[in-house]
Amino acid sequence: MKKILFRWFDGDVGYSFRHSPMAIAAAVVAFVCIFCAVFAGWVAPHDPHDLATLELGDARLPPVWMEQGTSKYLLGTDEQGRDILSALMYGSRVSLVVGFVSVLLSMLIGVTLGLLAGFRGGWLDAFLMRLCDVVLSFPAILVALLIAGVGRALFPNAPNSVAFGVLILAITLTKWVDYARTVRGSTLVERNKEYVQAARVTGVSSLRIMRKHVLPNVLGPVFVIATVQVATAIITEATLSFLGVGVPPTSPSLGTLISNGNQFLFSGEWWGVVFPGVMLVLIALSVNLLGDWLRDALNPRLG
């Protein structure tokens, strides 16, 4: 895997990135967001999880440039007196973890099933593709909402780790189909090529052929899909959290921040909604732009 990535970025992909201002700008924005989320404990001016530092007297303060704003809270505070800027960094961490883990699991499931379906064919291929058709028949957000809601109903007093697990499972089960269908189509082409036939003649096992020969040649579209689906998964998590079936309310993800701020939007306290929304847009947009660049770099004929 590392050799493939290095070969890409040392060759045409790296050249395309260095000569694409849009890709560079998107990478910078994504890096800043991810850096602030990962190192929120050191970068954030306050810890929104530390109840001892919260001051109810500072609740619902506006941003620093508005009247009654203070430099202590650059983007204002919420109804509990939590610093919005710090909550954004910690909330982005939750959203990114859920997004990345769910995409990794979706990619693992989808690539595995797609390889098996395309390489084996027959009844297994037919069964897996009909399963994909069934999953695609339902809107992804409704399936995720159903799974997350059922999980909350079955485990109402579950710890946060179980709630996160149910949320990740809900997103994973709606995202693996894209990988399976894409890899299956690419595998159908690759399995009839001469290098695969030569490996079969020499007695190489089917599992080794799929892992060593076919898989590296079908990963290009997979990385493009994964890049785009990170943004989709983050938005799905924010949607579920906004609806109250995502991460626990005690864990300030971007969705829960928007949901909490929405309660005070019509009283003029717009910062509780706007800033988490802008953060969500920046993450999703930057990742989507990187996905578009990667697609064009791997297949210039589509550009």
TrEMBL record:
Location within or outside the cell: Cell membrane
Domain ABC transmembrane type-1: 92-291
Topological relation to the membrane, as annotated: Multi-pass membrane protein
Keyword Membrane appears in the UniProt entry: yes
Keyword DNA damage carried by entry: no
Main subcellular location of this protein, as a coarse class: membrane
CDD domains documented for this protein: TM_PBP2
Membrane spanning residue stretches: 21-44, 96-119, 131-155, 161-177, 214-235, 270-291
Record's keyword terms, sorted: Cell membrane, Membrane, Transmembrane, Transmembrane helix, Transport
InterPro entries reported in the protein's UniProt record: BP-dependent_transpt_permease (IPR050366), MetI-like (IPR000515), MetI-like_sf (IPR035906), OppC_N (IPR025966)
Record-stated family: Belongs to the binding-protein-dependent transport system permease family.
Protein name: ABC transporter permease
Annotated source species: Variovorax robiniae
High-level lineage: Bacteria, Pseudomonadati, Pseudomonadota, Betaproteobacteria, Burkholderiales
